């Protein structure tokens, strides 16, 4: 115990600890002192406690006390006649309990007493317990990794990665082949990825191009040229493109008509005949639905834009 005393004009008796109460039960205080009696030793399960103290002045009933548990409290308690310091759920650590008393409410001179208090953590809250736990986790992980190694897991993983990398390169190569084979029509066939599928669609486009001026060009015509039943042909084509063969032929004819209008001096009637459409009203309607204008205005607008660019 450490005593410090202000310069005082009269005798101030010693202040002593009377009782230690843990979880509302009084215990033998002497059992909790360290060997040198300079420290009170508690465990983490005893971290709710109170200490009663008293100044050995039997003639003065106006004594007032104030205390602070340094390391836990932020400020001193107010002076009062209450001679018990109560603490609840104090974390493990080392603290210093300081107690002051004065003889009168108006007195500015006081006597101070201090005692160290140590609260030891549970064994599993110590740094050694944490280090042991981390070490055990590392050993378990190392053992598990070694077990995986013995079973050839990492070799299989490396082979799988190599295969996936190879597949990625093959897919990239297939995309290049697809773009080269299908040209401007590649976007119409998002589900066409395998070499045999690309060849199938490429042949269809060639047949359409070669027979575009034929009015009978349609799903049945294509199926016959592909040597496949119309029903099977339509299903396979839709699986690869998402649209029916008839819709694709219509799109192809409109795209071709727009191309001829811009790149040739053919009359509109000649353009219509070259794409295998016999009905002018039908052509004008489909063209307007796709491009939002008439064939004549489409040609004039785009050729005027091309002329302006060449002049600039």
UniProtKB/TrEMBL annotation:
GO molecular function, one term: DNA-binding transcription factor activity
Keyword field contains Transcription: yes
Protein name as catalogued: Helix-turn-helix domain-containing protein
PROSITE patterns associated with the record: HTH_ARAC_FAMILY_1, HTH_ARAC_FAMILY_2
Transmembrane domains' residue ranges: 122-146
Pfam family membership, one: Y_Y_Y
Domain HTH araC/xylS-type span(s) in chain numbering: 202-301
Keyword Transmembrane helix: yes
Alphabetically ordered keywords of this record: DNA-binding, Membrane, Transcription, Transcription regulation, Transmembrane, Transmembrane helix
SMART domains: HTH_ARAC
InterPro entries listed in its UniProt record: Homeodomain-like_sf, HTH_AraC, HTH_AraC-typ_CS, Ig-like_fold, Y_Y_Y
């Amino acid at each position: 115990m450490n005593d410090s005393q202000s310069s005082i004009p009269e005798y101030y008796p010693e202040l002593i600890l009377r009782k230690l109460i843990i979880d509302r039960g009084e215990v033998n205080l002497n059992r909790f002192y360290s060997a040198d009696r300079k420290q009170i030793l508690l465990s983490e399960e005893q971290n709710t406690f109170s200490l009663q103290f008293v100044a050995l002045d039997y003639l003065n009933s106006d004594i007032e006390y104030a205390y602070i548990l340094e390391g836990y409290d932020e400020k001193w308690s107010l002076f009062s006649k209450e001679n018990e310091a109560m603490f609840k759920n104090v974390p493990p650590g080392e603290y210093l309990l300081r107690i002051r008393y004065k003889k009168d409410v108006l007195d500015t001179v006081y006597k101070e007493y201090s005692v160290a208090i140590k609260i030891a953590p549970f064994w599993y809250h110590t740094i050694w317990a944490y280090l042991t736990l981390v070490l055990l986790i590392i050993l378990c992980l190392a053992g598990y990794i070694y077990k995986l190694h013995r079973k050839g897991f990492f070799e299989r993983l490396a082979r799988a990665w190599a295969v996936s990398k190879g597949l990625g390169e093959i897919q990239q190569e297939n995309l290049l082949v697809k773009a080269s084979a299908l040209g401007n029509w590649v976007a119409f066939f998002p589900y066409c990825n395998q070499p045999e599928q690309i060849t199938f669609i490429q042949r269809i486009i060639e047949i359409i191009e070669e027979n575009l001026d034929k009015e009978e060009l349609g799903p049945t015509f294509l199926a016959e040229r592909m040597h496949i039943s119309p029903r099977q042909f339509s299903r396979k084509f839709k699986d690869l493109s998402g649209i029916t063969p008839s819709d694709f032929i219509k799109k192809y004819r409109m795209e071709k008509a727009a191309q001829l209008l811009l790149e040739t001096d053919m009359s509109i009637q000649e353009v219509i005949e070259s794409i295998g459409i016999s009905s002018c009203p039908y052509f004008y309607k489909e063209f307007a639905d796709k491009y939002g204008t008439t064939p004549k205005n489409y040609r004039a607008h785009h050729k005027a834009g091309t002329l302006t660019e060449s002049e600039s």
